[in-house]
Structure formats: C-alpha cells, structure tokens
Design a protein that fits this description.
Elements (H helix, E strand, L loop, with lengths): L1 H28 L2 E8 L4 E8 L1 H6 L3 E9 L9 E5 L17 E6 L10 E9 L9 E11 L4
Parallel strand pairs: 5-7
Antiparallel strand pairs: 1-2, 3-4, 3-6, 4-5, 6-7
Length: 150
C-alpha cells in the first residue's frame, strides 16, 4: 500500500511540475524591457526588446507553452500560425495584452484550429531586430495536448 501511495505522490508531483513549467514559460517571457532605437527603414525610433537573462537562457531550448491559436487574416497554414497566452478576445492584437504574450509557431505537423487552449512543445527563438516579426517564435513545434485544465 505504501508503494502505491508513493507512486501516486510522484505522479502528482510530475504533473504539477509540468503544469508549473508550462505556465512559467509565459511568465518568463514577460520579463522583458524595451529601449528606443532609431530605425533607418522606418525613419523614426522604435521599441526594441531587451531580453532578460532568464529569457536569453531559454533561447534555442525546448519549451512547453500552453495557449491559444489566434486566427488572423493571412493565416498561412496549419503549420504556421500565431499563438497567444490569452484567448482571442484578450490577445495582443485584439485586447490589452502586450507583445510578449504572443509568438509565431512553425509546427512540424499541421495543428487543427481550436478555440480551446492547447499545449505546444518546440524550440524557442528570440527576435530583437526584425520589426516585421514577433519577438518570440517556436520552431519544430508539436501538439502536446488539446484542451486546458484552467
């Protein structure tokens, strides 16, 4: 009986650790500041992201992120889309969230659109130089699970 109880505790700890890791990815990505720099192409100063050490440590690493697919005009395919920490009505493009709450996704296999929360796993890349792209992107992304527990 003690062995079964011990296994259940280890499983529970593993599940909660995974949930914490997913939620903490967005929290870590929110640890960002900006600096104004003159952009030659635009002809004026633009906000350039300054990534914290915590964010820089994630670059090139595999991360799990729980969020929502954002349907936008020009949606390229089920392999390339925008992903948000928040539902459509609250996301950066439609609501009051900041640019640190969205990322480009480049999936290995097509991911069907869902208005429900999903979890993706992939390699995180940072962008501080191309103002025509989002600051964050996740490459070689795969669907981990559909639906959320939140």
């Amino acid at each position: 009986m003690q062995l079964k109880f011990g296994i259940l505790i280890l499983l529970a700890v593993g599940i909660f650790t995974r949930i914490d890791a997913q939620e903490s990815t967005w929290k870590t990505l929110a640890k960002i500041t900006y600096t104004k720099q003159y952009d030659e192409l635009m002809g004026f100063k633009v906000d350039v992201p300054v990534f914290s050490e915590d964010i820089q440590a994630l670059e090139g690493q595999e991360v799990e992120v729980k969020g929502y697919i954002i349907p936008v005009e020009g949606y390229k395919s089920h392999k390339e889309f925008i992903f948000s920490a928040f539902p459509y009505t609250m996301c950066f493009f439609c609501g009051g969230a900041g640019p640190e709450s969205v990322m480009d996704v480049y999936a290995t296999n097509p991911v069907e659109y869902s208005a429900e929360q999903i979890t993706l796993r992939g390699r995180l890349e940072l962008n501080a130089t191309d103002i025509n792209r989002l600051m964050y992107s996740i490459h070689d992304a795969v669907l981990v699970e559909e639906g959320g527990t939140d």
